[in-house]
Every structure is written in C-alpha cells, then in structure tokens.
C-alpha cells in the first residue's frame, strides 16, 4: 500500500467515525468549557484493517510534531558536517595505516595484522547475538502491545518491516565497522571488502536466526553460539599476541582468503533462510516477548537522554536478575564490614563472568604492544580494566545510587566504599601482575626497568580500579540546577561531564606515564585520587554546614549591632535562613505549626 | 514518662520546594516508648517530614537530633540506632531475600544471625520466597522484605512511611501487633499512615498534618495506644 493510499485510508477512518454529539450530561462547574471530546453515542463499530490503524497512528504522530522544518534542516547540516569531518579523519587514519602496513613485510607481522579483523569478526557476532537476545530482536512498544496486538488484525503485517529492518541494520552497521577496522589494520582492498561482507552477512544471519527463535523463546542455542563467538574473539586476540611475540609460528594461523568469502556466503544463506522462517513465524511471537523489548528500549532511551550509562546498566542488570529469578541462597560469613566483603566474594563465585573480563583485559596491553601502540598501553589498558571491573562494583553501585540501602547499614560512606572495593582491588592486583611483563616492553613496547615496569603496572591497575569506582559512584545529572542555553535546547552543565566519568580518573592517573614522567608519580597521584574517592565527601552536606555557620555568624553580628543601637533586641529576629528558635517539645509546639503553602 | 530518654528532637524544621512551603516550623520530641503517628491527606507533607527526620532530606531551617547527635544520614552511629523504611529503600538485584536479611543482621553484629534471620523470615511469611531475587517479588512481598530489613537488626528508633502500603489485611494486623510489641519494649516509633486501625492500635500520639493550605493548622492528639504505653 502506498503512502497516499495509507493516508487516504486513515482519513477514511476518521471520516467514518461517528460524529461527536453533545454529551448527555454536562458538569455544571465546567459547563462553559470547550471540551473538545464527547462520549460516543451508541453506534455500530466500524470495521478497520491494520493498515488503517497504522495510518491513523502515523497521522497522530505527525500531528504532534514539535520541530519546524528549519530546525530539522539546521540539525541535518550539523549532522552532515560532523559525518564529513569524522569521515575525513578516519580516511586519513586509514591512509596512514596503509603506509605503515607497507613496511610490514615479515610473515609474523602480516599474520598478526590479519588476526585483528578475525577478532573483530567474532566479537561483532557475539555482540549481535547479545543485542538480539536482549531486545527481541523484533519488538513492539507497550502502547502497540496494548492497543494493536489485542485487536483482531494480523501482527505479521505490522512486524514485517521491523524484522527485515533489524536484519539489514545489523548487516550494514557491522559491515561498516569491520571495513574501518580491516582498513586500519592495513589489509588490502579486496580483503577489506571480503571481511566487511563476511561480517555483515554473518551478523545479519545471526540476527535473523535470533528472530526465528523468538517465537519459541529458544534461548539456549543462541547463548551457546554467543559464548563460542566470544571465545573466538579472545582466541584471535591471544593468537595475535602470541604470533607477534614469536611464541607461535605465524604459519599456524594463516587463513586462506577464500575462507572469508565462504563465511560471507554462509552468512547470506543463514540470513535468507532464517529471515524467511522468522517472517513466517511473526504471527506467533508472544505479545510479552514483543513488548518486553519495547519497554527495554524506552527505558534505555530515558537513560540515554540523560547520558546516564550507569542507569542504563542498572536497567540491564535488573532485567538479567529478573530473568534469572531465583538463586540457591548461601549463608554469609563474619560480622560488621567483613560481612559486606564476603558477600562480594560469594557474588563472584555465583556470577564468575566478570572474572573472564578481567583476564581478557590483561591481554590488551600485550595486543597494543603487538600492533605498535605500546605508548598508549597504560591509558587503553586502564580503560579496558575499568570496563572489566565495573560489574564487580555492583554492590557499591546499589549502595551509592540511592541512600535508602546505605542508611540501613551501620557504616560510614568510606567504610562502605572500601569494603565494596576489596574484591575488585584483589582482581586488579592479579591484572597488575599479569601485565607487568608488557610494561617492561617484552613485546617491543616502551622498555622499562623491572621496578619501573612494576610501578607502571601498579599505576595502570590503580587507574582502572579508580575509574571503575568513579563510574559506579558518580551522581546522575542534576536537572534542577540552572541550565545552559544551547541550540539543542536547555542542557544541564553536568550532562557532558557525565560522559567522562571514570575516564577522567583514568586519564589523570595515567597522564605521567603517557608523558614519560617517572611511574612513581603516577602511583602517588593514584593514592591521592583514591583518598578522595573513598572518602565519599558529601559536598551538599559540607555546603549546608558552611551556610549554617555563616547564618549563625550573621545572626551573632546582628545581635551585636542590635545591642549597640537598641538595648532590647527582638528575640529570634535573625535573617532569613538563620537557625530558628528551637521549640521545646512536640506537645507545646504542635498547636503552633502552620503550613502556609499556596497550591497552584 | 519524664524518666524516658529523648530519642529524637526536631526543632522548627521547614522545607520549601521552589516557592511552595511544604513544611513550616515543625517541632517534635520523641521519647523511648513513644509511637507518633503522622496522619493527613496526600500531599500534606508527612513524607517530607519523615525524610527530614531521618536525614534523607535537609530542612531549609531548623535542626534534627538523634540522641543528641546532629542528624546526618551518613553518620554510622545514627545508622546503627535508627531503622527506617521509606520509599527510597533499594535492594541488591543479585542477592536473594534471605541473603539480604543475613547481610543486614551480620552487618549489625547480631549474635547468632542464622536463627534470627530464619525467625524474621518466617514472621514476614517470606520463607517460600527466601531464594528469590528482589526483582521477581510482588509489590506486597517487597514491602514485607523492606519491613523485615528493619526488624532483623537492632534499633532504638523506627521510622516508617505508610508501612501498611501493599500489605493485605492479615499483613496489616500482623504489623500492628508487631509495632505494639516493639513500642512496649521501649522502641520509639514515628510513622506516617492512612490506615486508621494501625494508627489506633499503635500510636501513643497522633499528629494530624494539614497540608500547604492557607491558615492550615496541624493538631496533636493522644493516640488510642497511649494507654498501653
């Protein structure tokens, strides 16, 4: 059905609707108002089809547009300008990489570089399946679930564009990303195209498979393939390090170019086959599965509007916990603060997945050395560790996001932060030990003496740990403060800084290492930052105390002035904001309480 | 009554949201064994008063003290003595019902925590849900868990905001009995409630909070439960 036909159909619905008549009963208090709506008289319902309903919804949405065409064009100009600028930067980087690759003549170097696209291929496959499982991949909003899915209409017609949309989108996005990475890795043009096609088609196929499995809620095979893909990414990364270090012969990992095209073909077949299967099953996908993804999208949109990644992660964690539902309870151990520490140990035993993240992050400095980015190893290694440690600070996050739970525990903020940091700190120490050889430059990175390398590893691990702690404890954007006026509307000043939380600590602590200053300074800086972060300084409380002291001082001054000018000063006549006279007891004060608000 | 120790004092506390005063010059003294019930219609400011009393919200003016210590919700001494169940209570998404209570009891150094946790769990009728994660509990069960976190730990002051919310009739009756028992043991209770039976059974003093109405006056009256105190 064309747009025009749909519009006509929608207007037909509107025309066919019974004409509103005067309400049978009017409320006397509001008789003068123009209500703009009325109760429908008894009339036979009109038969409408799904296209008409869809058209009507579209009409409502367009009728509520809040932006003019000029604003849209202005935004489009900025978007195009940004894309061109970023594109030019990427192309420039690719050209530089291609020049650098020309000097990569040994087999070890060539194979090491070729393993990068393979790692990205597997990582994107795992990511695609993860996202597909999380959101559906076919989804419907709560409103659609309530209004449309209950109506006697074919769901398939509404869901079909979404199904093919997510399949194509998955293919295009992953292909583009892989093309950029392969080009940056110095691959020749035909291999860049082959890797992009293989990744795009494979990811599209996996997305289609996830959609086909959605009707039966068959999640186990998806989880298994996702785990295998993630393992493949880790193996590729490890192999790259091993080849570059000369631990393994390069020939072991030499994959013929034809294999990439075979993967592309298999991906295309999977996309078509599973896409067709999913297409046929659209009518039988349970409504709950469709709206579940829709509600997740709306929640995530809310978090993203505030650039609150912590909230976005909370939503995902809550969802995962709700899906699990039940655990085998375990008794705790110890008392006081140790009980909190031991719970973290039990958490790790129950959900050991973050452990693999930390071990994977230990490969990053070696991989960076292997591809000649050893100088950036402290910064990027610390960021990798930070990302890996964030899930281990789950308890700290819950105790920091609202004060309700922390208030029930008899500990200070510092005690809570220290107790919840013990397990992540131990893992960071393991990471530190694992990456120390890399910091000594055994793979050709920055060469350091053993003591310096140990200090550099310590500072890098501390940077990752403190970054994760900062990420989990940072307060969300405050929308009650005065806003900045921007072309995109009112923006709270802390919105942009919210993006940097965690990364700011990493950059601060690793700065001496990047600038070539002795690593001991980075360790000292980390100690200072740790002191501030664990102290949990309550700035609001400090501000309030200062204001109270100022007010008391002011009151004292006024009293002194009053004494000088008038012998009998009026009691309790302090300035606004001063501490009022205390009331003796509730019983005597109760009759004097008065609420004087005006309700709008 | 005069010999009973003062647990909490609030002196002339006020709160304004924007330009709208919500609470104006409110004072209160609560002794051990007192049960103060705040009643009043929605929006009258009961929850705001409670939040200021426990330090979750700073009053614009005035002062709150818990056993002579200036109220700060981050003070470990105050956290040790005051249990509160208001609307901001959060749960660990990855800890089960019984694990929450176990953690709470151990953190407060309860002797023989296992037996104590089991007793409280049975009392709030959450034994079948002991292994469930909080995200899967019904709203009533979450309410019971929240109340259990307050009952599983030592306390000298209990602050509850509409504790009857989401509880069934049987649950409200249990809560009333439990709070009366707590009060008789010398615990100080401050609660906001819309449930007349709960207020009648528990409160020794009742404060009717009149909202931000011009010339609105709050009145205090002895509660029916005062005879028991």
UniProtKB/TrEMBL annotation, chain B:
An example Gene Ontology molecular-function term: ATP binding
Name of the protein in its database record: ABC transporter ATP-binding protein
UniProt xrefs under Gene3D superfamilies: P-loop containing nucleotide triphosphate hydrolases
PANTHER family in alphabetical order: ABC TRANSPORTER, ATP-BINDING PROTEIN
Pfam families with a match to the protein in the record: ABC_tran (PF00005)
Residue stretches making up the ABC transporter domain: 8-229
InterPro entries associated with the record: AAA+_ATPase, ABC_transporter-like_ATP-bd, ABC_transporter-like_CS, P-loop_NTPase
Organism expressing this protein natively: Propioniciclava soli
PROSITE patterns in the record: ABC_TRANSPORTER_1 (PS00211), ABC_TRANSPORTER_2 (PS50893)
Superkingdom field: Bacteria
Entry keyword set: ATP-binding, Nucleotide-binding, Transport
The family this protein is said to belong to: Belongs to the ABC transporter superfamily.
């Amino acid at each position: 059905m064309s747009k025009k036909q749909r519009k006509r159909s929608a207007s037909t619905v509107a025309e066919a609707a019974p004409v509103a008549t005067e309400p049978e009963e009017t409320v006397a208090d509001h008789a003068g108002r123009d209500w703009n709506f009325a109760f429908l008289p008894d009339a036979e319902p009109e038969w409408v089809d799904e296209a008409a309903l869809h058209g009507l919804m579209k009409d409502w949405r367009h009728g509520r547009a809040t932006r003019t065409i000029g604003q849209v064009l202005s935004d489009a100009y900025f978007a195009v300008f940004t894309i061109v600028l970023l594109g030019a930067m990427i192309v420039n980087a690719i050209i530089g990489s291609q020049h650098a690759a020309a000097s990569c003549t040994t087999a070890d170097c060539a194979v090491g570089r070729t393993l990068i696209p393979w790692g990205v291929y597997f990582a994107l496959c795992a990511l695609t399946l993860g996202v597909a499982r999380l959101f559906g991949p076919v989804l419907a909003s709560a409103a659609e679930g309530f209004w449309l899915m209950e109506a006697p209409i074919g769901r398939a017609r509404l869901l079909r564009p979404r199904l093919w949309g997510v399949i194509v989108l998955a293919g295009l996005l992953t292909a583009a990303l892989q093309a950029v990475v392969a080009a940056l890795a110095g691959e020749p043009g035909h291999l860049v195209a082959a890797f992009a096609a293989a990744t795009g088609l494979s990811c599209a196929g996996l997305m289609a498979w996830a959609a086909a499995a959605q009707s039966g809620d068959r999640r186990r095979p998806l989880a298994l393939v996702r785990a295998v893909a993630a393992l493949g990414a880790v193996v590729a990364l490890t192999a790259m390090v091993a080849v570059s270090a000369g631990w393994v012969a390069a020939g072991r990992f030499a994959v013929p170019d034809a294999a990439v095209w075979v993967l592309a073909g298999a991906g295309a077949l999977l996309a078509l086959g599973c896409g067709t299967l999913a297409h046929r099953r659209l009518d039988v996908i349970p409504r709950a599965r469709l709206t579940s993804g829709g509600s997740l999208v709306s929640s995530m949109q809310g978090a993203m509007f505030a650039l609150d990644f912590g909230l976005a992660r909370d939503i995902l964690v809550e969802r995962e916990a709700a899906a699990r539902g039940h655990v085998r309870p375990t008794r705790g151990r110890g008392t006081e603060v140790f009980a909190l520490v031991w719970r973290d140990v039990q958490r790790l035993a129950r959900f050991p997945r973050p452990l693999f993240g930390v071990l994977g992050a230990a490969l990053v400095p070696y991989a960076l050395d292997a591809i000649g980015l050893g100088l950036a190893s402290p910064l990027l290694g610390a960021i990798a560790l930070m990302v890996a440690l964030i899930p281990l600070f789950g308890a700290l996050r819950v105790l920091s996001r609202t004060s309700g739970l922390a208030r029930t525990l008899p500990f200070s903020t510092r005690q809570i932060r220290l107790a919840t940091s013990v397990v992540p700190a131990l893992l960071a120490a393991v990471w530190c030990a694992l990456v120390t050889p890399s910091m000594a430059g055994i793979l050709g990175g920055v060469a350091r003496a053993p003591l310096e390398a140990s200090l550099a590893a310590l500072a890098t691990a501390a940077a990752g740990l403190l970054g994760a702690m900062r990420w989990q404890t940072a307060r969300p954007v405050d929308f009650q403060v005065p806003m900045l006026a921007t072309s995109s509307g009112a923006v709270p000043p802390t919105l942009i800084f919210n993006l940097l939380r965690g990364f700011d600590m990493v950059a601060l602590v690793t700065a001496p290492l990047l600038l070539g200053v002795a690593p001991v300074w980075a360790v000292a800086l980390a100690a200072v930052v740790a002191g501030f972060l664990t102290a949990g300084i309550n700035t609001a409380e400090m501000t309030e105390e200062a204001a109270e002291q100022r007010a008391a001082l002011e009151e004292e001054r006024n009293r002194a002035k009053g004494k000088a000018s008038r012998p009998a000063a009026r009691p309790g006549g302090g300035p606004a904001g001063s501490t009022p006279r205390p009331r003796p007891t509730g019983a005597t004060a109760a009759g004097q309480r008065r609420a004087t608000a005006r309700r709008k | 009554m005069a010999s009973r120790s003062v647990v909490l004092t609030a002196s002339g506390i006020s709160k304004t949201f924007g330009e709208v005063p919500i609470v104006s010059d409110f004072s209160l003294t609560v002794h051990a064994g007192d049960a103060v019930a705040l009643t009043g219609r929605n929006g009258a400011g009961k929850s705001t008063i409670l939040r200021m009393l426990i330090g979750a919200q700073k009053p614009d003016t005035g002062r709150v003290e818990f056993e002579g210590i200036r109220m700060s919700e981050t003070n470990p001494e105050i956290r040790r003595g005051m249990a509160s169940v208001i609307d901001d209570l959060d749960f660990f998404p990855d800890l089960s019902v019984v694990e929450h209570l176990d953690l709470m009891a151990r953190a407060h150094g309860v002797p023989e925590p296992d037996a104590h946790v089991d007793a409280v769990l049975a009392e709030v009728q959450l034994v079948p849900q002991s292994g469930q994660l909080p995200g899967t509990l019904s709203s009533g069960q979450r309410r019971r868990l929240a109340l259990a976190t307050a009952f599983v730990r030592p306390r000298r002051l209990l602050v509850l905001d509409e504790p009857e919310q989401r509880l069934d009739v049987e649950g409200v009756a249990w809560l009333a009995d439990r709070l009366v028992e707590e009060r008789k043991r010398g615990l100080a209770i401050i609660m906001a409630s819309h449930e007349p039976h709960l207020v009648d059974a528990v409160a020794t003093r009742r404060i009717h909070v009149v909202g931000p109405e011009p010339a609105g006056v709050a009145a205090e009256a002895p509660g029916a439960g005062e005879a028991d105190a």
